[in-house]
Design goal:
Number of helices: 5
Shape: rod-shaped
Strand content: 15-25%
Distance between the termini: 150 Å
Order of helices and strands: HHHEEHHEE
Largest sheet: 4 strands, antiparallel
Strand order of the largest sheet: 1-2-4-3
Helix content: 40-55%
Number of strands: 4
Length: 269
């Protein structure tokens, strides 16, 4: 192949000279080898460049990952620190609130005990003023009077009348009590229904109202004809002290469906 190419490329004088042929072949071979070597070097350099770029990319990714891990660890530490701060603050505030609550409960218990003593003393004094015995055990509630009340209502057939009864019950609380204080204490004494405990007004034959809201006496009269149901009640401050009494007392006016069958003797004035 080389000699064929040589015949084509070189003049006849060169081809006919053996030494010149060898020199030319050697030169061409060197050029060819150089060309092959240069091509190989180019490929190697290209591969080296690719490897370097890959290594640089790997190094860069590694650095970025380290930085991200470092930042994440710092953020975790900061978050954990903030959580500890919030938790410690919450624990501190809860402890303070529990302490304040315990003190408040203690104060309320003391105030309740004090109020109970004051109410007990007030009730006993009121019982002594009214001659109610025994002064320590008597509830302090006395039936002052009972009267009939007629109420009318109109329907499609005209007016019709029902009969209700109004009973005035004197409380042991003097008119020196405010309306709010008297209402609260009377409600606590008479209107609270504790499990397993008799309703206070059942002593005078009045049943507990089914609904704590204001009642319609007409509907109650129709639905519960055989029961002496409490229809409504209201307070009255009676400033007219009777003889022997130092002050007037708060009254509770009870409106119920039937007359009281028998007032206990200890609840009469």
């Amino acid at each position: 192949m080389a000699f064929q190419s040589l015949h084509l490329m070189c003049p006849p004088t060169i081809i006919d000279n053996p030494q010149m042929q060898i020199s030319l072949i050697t030169k061409l071979k060197l050029q060819y080898d150089n060309h092959i070597f240069a091509a190989s070097c180019f490929k190697i350099n290209k591969k080296i460049k690719i490897v370097r770029e890959r290594d640089e990319a790997i190094r860069t990714v590694g650095i970025e990952r380290q930085n991200a891990d470092r930042q994440m660890n710092e953020e975790k530490k900061n978050a954990a620190y903030q959580i500890r701060q919030v938790r410690d603050q919450a624990v501190k505030e809860i402890a303070e609130m529990q302490g304040a609550l315990a003190q408040a409960q203690k104060d309320v218990a003391y105030q309740r005990h004090l109020n109970e003593n004051l109410l007990r003393i007030s009730r006993e004094r009121a019982n002594v003023d009214r001659g109610l015995k025994p002064k320590k055990e008597h509830t302090g509630y006395v039936v002052m009077n009972m009267q009939e009340k007629k109420l009318q209502r109109k329907n499609s057939r005209g007016y019709y009348t029902i009969t209700l009864w109004e009973t005035v019950l004197q409380s042991p609380y003097s008119v020196d009590f405010t309306e709010e204080q008297a209402r609260y204490q009377i409600h606590e004494d008479l209107m609270q229904h504790e499990d397993g405990k008799e309703w206070a007004l059942s002593r005078i034959g009045i049943c507990e109202k089914p609904d704590p809201k204001f009642c319609d006496p007409f509907e109650y009269n129709e639905i519960m004809e055989n029961e002496n149901v409490l229809v409504r009640y209201q307070l009255r401050a009676n400033y007219q002290a009777r003889r022997g009494e130092k002050t007037g007392f708060w009254d509770i006016i009870l409106v119920h469906q039937k007359p009281i069958p028998q007032v206990p003797k200890d609840m009469r004035p």
